Amino acid sequence: MASKLPKIVGPRLTEVRLEDLTEDAAPDFRRGEKYDGVQFSRVAADGLELSGTDFAECEFQGVSFNDTQLRGAGFRDCILSELYAPVFRAARSTWRDVHLNNPRLGSAELYESGLQSVRIDGGKLDFLNLRGSKLTDVLITDCIINELDLGSAAATRVVLKNCTLGTLDLTGARLKDFDVRGTDFRTISGLGSLAGLVIDDYQLTLLAPLLAGHLGIRVV
Hints:
This protein is mainly beta. The chain is 7% helix and 45% strand. It is built from 1 helix and 18 strands. The protein has one helix spanning 201-215, and strands at residues 22-23, 34-36, 38-41, 54-56, 59-61, 74-81, 84-89, 94-101, 104-109, 114-121, 124-129, 134-141, 144-149, 154-161, 164-169, 174-179, 184-189, 197-198. The strands form 2 sheets. Strands 1, 2, 3, 4, 5, 6, 8, 10, 12, 14, 16 and 18 form a 12-stranded parallel β-sheet that branches. The chain has a 6-stranded parallel β-sheet with strand order 7-9-11-13-15-17. It is elongated and about 65 Å long.
């Protein structure tokens, strides 16, 4: 009798609900400060030094963080819509119970970060660097990502649905229930780290030549 395959477990997401927010039309962003229950709309924080800044139960609408230093920053119970940054610097940041809607990011440096219960809907990211990060319960839908770097990352219950990927780097990654069914991709590197990846039959045909080359198999 054939062994029963383990059940695929999807992301466990917490719905973000924000009420009684205080609108700040001209925020004075400061490094290391904590912002709680604030709504930011169509403001620019470009080029600021905001390392270690903490945002809790905040809503961002059309905010620009281009070349802003957000190293070690925290986002908790936040909604970010139309986030804009040709250069987004948020290495070693923390994201928990966050919803990003239609972001427009060029180079997104999020390496060695922690993402838990994060949802990304739509948008375009040229380069998403999550190298060495820990992702738990993450859902990405209808998003265009030219290059996604998950090298040495730990990813559990992650789904990319109806996305378009250029290059996906999984070198040294540790995956569990990492589901990319229905997502188009051009190439995957790190073929020795595919355990835990969930794909469909069509994607398997795309991967077959890469796997054959990786294993030294000659198809004649």
